[in-house]
Amino acid sequence: MGADRSVRLELYGMARYLVGKGVLDIPAESAATVGALLREAVRLAPALVGAVLEADGTPIAPNYILLDGRGAVASGDAVSDNDHPCLLVLASGG
Amino acid sequence: MTPRLPRDLLEIDLSERTWSRSRLADAVFDAAPGGTALAVRLLDERVAGPLDPLGGENPLCFAAGPFAGSPVPAATKHALATVSPLTGLINDTLSSSHWSAALRRMGLAALVIRGRAEGLTALVIDERSVEFRDATALAGTSADAAARALRRELGDVRARVCAIGPAGERLVRFSVVENDGRQAGRGGAGAVFGAKALKAIVLRGGGEVPVADPEAMMRLARRLRERALGPKTAKYRVLGTGANMRVLDRMGLLPTRNFSAARFEGTERVTPERARESPESYVEYRAGCANCPVQCEHRYVRRDGDRRHAAASEYESTWAFGPNCGVDDLDAVLDAVDRCDRYGLDTISTGGVIAWTMECVERGILSARRVGIDARFGDARAMLALIDAIAAAEGFGALLARGVRAAAAEVGGGSERFAMHCKGLEMPGYEPRGLPTYALGLAVCTRGACHNRAATYDLDLRRPTASYTPDERARACIDQEDYAAAWDTLLLCKFVRDCFDDFWSEAAELLAAAVGGTWDAANLRAVAAESWARKRSINARLGWRPEDDVLPARLFEDALHGGPAAGLRLESATLEALKKAYARGRAKYAAAVVL
Questions:
Q1: pTM of this structure
Q2: ipTM of the predicted structure?
């Protein structure tokens, strides 16, 4: 990935609420892997820490990180140019 | 001195106008400490074979949760088990708040009601007596209005009331029972009330609820309360479940226009988050159950609207009238939810029968003349008119009031293919074509298409691309069913499920503090498994057979289009393999099933 590109992290639920917008643009050089992407998200949006992400970027259950709204991914997985990572949480039951 | 725990059973016969109160044996509570396990056990003992759900012989079995009225947070709830007029099978449904605690404050663990009153009746119950009170003046009122009127008549502002609205009186098969603004929702318990000419149950008086080990109780309750105020429940406190709509739309799992699509172009206009994000246009009210720190309910009304009509914005309700009816008008969706609450209608089923009607009109199976209005997807005015007609059981609404399975059977002409239900219960708002384990959970659920008796979508969502064997998916389904049965027995709200490090052992510790005895993870698991087995056994006596565990044909025949789940559909052979694996996994309870 080139340095002039960014990966757009889509935010839903608590993540969107805490950041106050629906997306975070992460510089591509900081988003080679899912773990790196989330660490950069913490740096850009520290409000996520404690409710959505740990300080090291690990999602706090039951928050998920999915690629393209569908595939669950792990910290070491690579993020490519065409990926659309989504940080989201589902709420059901009662 | 050992405290006298609330372990009495009150049995009422509306036909004979008699009642009796007795102490349940301690052994009953060893196997069924409360909630759903106890309500189902009482139903199990009273259902010998097929019966008319709207006949006097169908019992209403209430059981308080073992923590109701105690310091345990998010646990003041009760269960209600009866035979559903919508499915003809068991309906175990839950509600919460002050009425649940009032049962135990009167020393009651359970309440069973049979028979049929001659005229509309309210039961007024205190610690020493039961009054059969004429309620004809309350005919046609909402549950909330009936509760206020009864408190006023009795001069008792602390009386706790559960009641039905006009839809229950008119025997709408998916009408609810309401107390304290909460509903025992799905499956039509409101119609069972209505068929018994039972308008309301008033609970008066009572003392403190004793617990077995007050010191341990305070320590454990405090720990759970602190956790329930932390990040694990933030999504419910801050956003409510309505935030699911954007998420499911993004995942391509948002059932749209009667499950004909799985993404909705109007999501941004109709998501309840829009109301929260628009404080200049909407007022938000927070609400919730008694002794619950989460207060998950987010009610909204236009700033220039009538604040008495602030509508709950739960995901399932807003989905049912938004995406599932193709309506992208948030105000109309909130109006629909508010109307259902006032009439006493289950929102999922109401939205389901209307979405089916709209699809049948669009396909030419139903005419506007027959329906009484040209009800097409996206038509908010038609949607609201049909809600009114269903609640009144008038015109085409009288047919819809019988549920989508019965309505489709009468309309025919291919409309059955678009009737989205399982065993007669309308489908909830998660797209099964992208969630195979969830599809299994829906198909085998004893209650019909219910998403709350097994959170089987969890496996699919956390690892959607993983390959699991049928046995692994079946095992996950069984584990989730038993897990849900434990929660529904303890009647802890599932919204605090992430607040436990080790649910089974921590919950057993809480239970021992509340009711005494030697509870551990193993015997709590046994209680959950027995509760499930009793439900299946009741269903077998009511006529259920394994071949009834089917899902709508559309889920197998129509692939999803658009979005991340594009191309997905259920495979009949796959679901059959999952069901066989599930049956093997449940084999140790097979004797109870086939007898």
A1: 0.96
A2: 0.91
